[in-house]
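A student in our group prepared the protein record below, which I am reviewing. What it holds is a sequence and that sequence's fold in token form. My question to you is simply how this chain folds and whether the tokens agree. Do not assume that whoever made the record got everything right. I have pasted the whole thing underneath without changing anything:
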Amino acid sequence: MRIEVLALALIVGFANYAFRYGPFRFGLGEGRAGGPMARFLAATGPAAIATLVVASVLPMVGEARLPLLAGVVTVLAVWGWRRSVVLATLAGPVAYGAVFALV
């Protein structure tokens, strides 16, 4: 493994940890239920899905369009149906893999 890839993985991992841990460590997660901080923290789930989609889509834009489309549509459909980031994040790769195996 190249040192650049390892450094990037460590930097991104630390940033992700800090983004999720920071608001609770510094007492920023104790606001009103409908306040701006609560809305900001609630948006991290959809933001994580969007980040994963962009990171996954860019290398495949010219290739494997049908599996990619199946994965994206599945993520959006499951998230819209259940409003669960976990289920949507798991269902997307399953649909992508299934279509990829069939094509």
